[in-house]
Write a structure and sequence with these properties.
The complex is a heterodimer of chains A (294) and B (312). Chain A has helices spanning 2-15, 17-22, 24-55, 59-62, 76-83, 87-114, 123-135, 139-151, 158-181, 186-194, 199-228, 231-236, 244-255, 259-279, 281-288. Chain A has 294 residues and is mainly alpha-helical. Chain A folds into 2 domains: 2-55, no CATH class; 81-288, MetI-like fold (Orthogonal Bundle). The longest helix of chain A is centred in the N-terminal third of the chain and has 32 residues, at 24-55. The two termini of chain A are 32 Å apart. Helix content of chain B is 72%, strand content 1%. Chain B has helices at 6-16, 20-28, 32-52, 71-78, 80-111, 118-130, 133-144, 151-156, 166-169, 171-196, 200-208, 213-240, 245-250, 262-272, 276-304; strands at residues 55-56, 66-67. Chain B has a two-stranded antiparallel sheet with strand order 1-2. In chain B, helix 3 packs across helix 15 and helix 12 (213-240) packs antiparallel against helix 15. Mean pLDDT of chain B is 83; it is low at 1-18 and 307-312. The chains are: A mainly alpha (294), B mainly alpha (312).
Chain lengths: 294, 312
């Protein structure tokens, strides 16, 4: 990858001779910026790449004083991972992620609507309240949550995680959905109201088309957080409802710290979110900044 | 950002006047399920934590609970390990946030320039943030920072590092490196959003007027970026102050308590020591400390993005 970018950069400079002649210095600078950019990009990505590479090695190849970059890949480690029963954990993670995200959207969308297009009084206070719940440390809540779950016989129950993940992602979703609602053009809304269109039609025909991409983006962001969540999962689940991060911990304590094997397990655990994140890149900033940045 | 589509809002209010009460509830209805749910799931536990913090209660001795007033708080303030954990929390949070921000600014400045494959580089750079924290911590602990087989020591070997044992020699730094790696993309994305929202015509006009690039950066770009940097620092701090996964996976707070932060310390007290009352009291202290930071942070987020942008 590196070699290609280095050789390709000069071509770019010569490709537009007219403009290059206007600002030759700037162009040359950009070539260097590109090279540095690529080097840093690869440096930051390297741990992930190394994880994937190591996952295709045998343990003997993974434990060498001089790291091996050329080797015959093997699927042995992946076979071990899948044979060790990762599927129930995967199913739990998928269930907790999907169901909590659906709940989040069902709760957040009307809420965001009432905080944007048809705002209630004290909109500001409500928004403050939602974001403030994200700032309180979870550790301070885990004890009563644990005791409540124990008393309600909901320890090691996947619905406990669903409820907690819904609460965890709701503030992000409310803020994010609100920022999308505010993008609905005011003239369109007014026109619909002038025509005397009922609220439901206004929602489905005017608001939804504008907000739909926002729903998708919000769903992806919430899914990423739910899939990666570890603190609640490790404290509130045991064997029935444990999720993929808990599997990783259990896997290394039962199988031992074998690099190649744990890299395969980590790759399997991480891949869904990396793919989702790559797809949602454009919306990532918006979700992470609670909709503050478009 | 806090302005709420004024034309629509005012038109509604005028029409709503005749039957105000009913209309008010019609407006409030869509909001209530989310609000009630959030209050129950997030506020109730904190009230209970307050109550538990006044009890002496061990999970291993059922029926041991009894009211002790502020005894737990006295114990917490006299617990030197608690203060070590508090200090570690501050070091980890401040260190990781600031370093990640500095690197993030550098990367964002690079990504703001056009070069071949910029989109791919951007994708590569955001990936660390997407890696499951548990998996990321495991990676750093094993294939990257292992004293003998880790690739970091292999790279550093020509510089005389040898078989340096990162995790046990510099546990706090090791955890911080992992956190910086995961959070730099976050900072980079926020700063990049700031850079790309900078009005290009002003920058170009300054260039035509003969301003040097460094001058443009200092006089125009930095003031414009300020609020994005502030937002990144605040949000990063909110997430990193709660860091648990990396410590749990990499060091288990050790050796001793040298890399224990408050979340991990409270977790240990509650789930390994079964001291509900004491752990709850620590939780309350942490909440109070966070509220102090958060009130300041909330105001910052709101004012800096409400459109009342200051020139400098």
């Amino acid at each position: 990858m590196m070699a290609r970018s280095i050789t390709a950069e000069p071509e770019l400079t010569t490709a537009a001779p007219g403009r290059a002649a206007v600002r030759p210095k700037r162009r040359r600078n950009n070539t260097w910026v590109g090279i540095i950019g690529w080097l840093l990009g690869i440096l930051f990505f390297f741990p992930v790449l190394w994880m994937v590479i190591t996952s295709f090695k045998t343990e003997a190849q993974a434990y060498t004083n001089t790291p091996q970059f050329v080797f015959t890949p093997t699927l042995e480690q992946y076979k071990t991972v899948f044979a060790s029963g990762i599927w129930p954990y995967f199913a739990n993670s998928a269930f907790a992620t999907i169901v909590s995200t659906i709940f989040v959207l069902l709760l957040a969308t009307p809420c965001a609507f009432a905080l944007s297009l048809r705002p209630v009084k004290k909109t500001r206070d409500v928004l403050f309240f939602f974001i403030s719940t994200k700032m309180l440390p979870i550790v301070a809540a885990i004890i009563p949550i644990y005791i409540a779950a124990r008393n309600l016989h909901m320890l090691d129950n996947i619905f406990t995680l669903v409820i907690l993940y819904t609460a965890m992602n709701l503030p992000i979703a409310v803020w994010m959905m609100r920022s999308f609602f505010l993008e609905v053009p005011g003239e369109l809304l007014e026109a619909a109201e002038m025509d005397g269109a009922p609220l439901r039609r206004t929602v489905t025909e005017v608001i939804l088309p504008v907000v739909a991409p926002g729903l998708a983006a919000t769903a992806l962001i919430c899914s990423i957080f739910a899939w990666n969540e570890f603190f609640f999962a490790v404290n509130l689940t045991a064997t029935q409802a444990a999720t993929v991060p808990v599997f990783l911990v259990g896997f290394i304590s039962s199988e031992g710290l074998y690099f190649a094997q744990l890299c395969a397990a980590a790759t399997v655990a991480t891949l869904p979110v990396i793919l989702a994140g790559w797809i949602a890149q454009r919306q990532l900033v918006r979700g992470l900044s609670f909709g503050a940045i478009k | 950002m806090t302005a709420i589509a004024p034309p629509v809002a005012s038109a509604q209010r005028v029409r709503a006047r005749p039957d105000r009460g009913r209309q008010g509830w019609v407006r409030r209805a869509p909001l209530l399920p989310a609000l009630v749910f959030t209050i129950i799931v997030t506020q109730l536990p904190f009230l209970l934590t307050l109550w538990y913090s006044l009890q002496s209660w061990s999970l291993v001795r059922p029926g041991s609970e009894h009211f002790v007033g502020f005894a737990n708080y006295v114990a917490v303030f006299q617990d030197s390990q608690f203060w070590t954990a508090a200090l570690n929390t501050v070091i980890l949070t401040v260190g990781a946030v600031l370093i990640a921000m500095l690197i993030g600014i550098g990367l964002a400045l690079i990504l703001d320039r056009k070069f071949l494959g910029r989109g791919i580089v951007r994708t590569l750079l955001i990936t660390p943030f997407l890696v499951m924290p548990v998996a990321a911590a495991l990676l750093w602990k094993t294939t990257l920072l292992d004293p003998t087989f880790g690739i970091v020591n292999w790279v550093l070997r020509p510089f005389g590092i040898g078989h340096f044992d990162w995790i046990s020699q510099v546990p706090l730094l090791s955890v911080m490196i992992e956190m910086i790696w995961q959070w730099t993309p976050f900072m980079m994305l926020l700063v990049l959003a700031g850079l790309q929202s900078q009005p290009k015509d002003i920058v170009e006009a300054a260039g035509v007027d003969g301003a040097r690039p460094l001058q443009i950066f200092r006089e125009l770009t930095v003031p414009h970026l300020r609020r994005y940097i502030e937002l990144g620092v605040v949000l990063g701090a909110i997430y990193l102050i709660n860091e648990f996964d990396a410590i749990y996976m990499m060091t288990q707070g050790g050796p001793g308590i040298s890399s224990t932060n408050l979340p991990f310390y409270i977790y240990q007290r509650a789930f390994l020591g079964f001291e509900v009352g004491q752990a709850a009291a620590m939780g309350v202290v942490v909440v109070v400390m966070t509220i102090i930071v958060a009130t300041f942070a909330l105001r910052l987020i709101f004012t800096s993005f409400s459109g009342t942008e200051q020139a400098a």
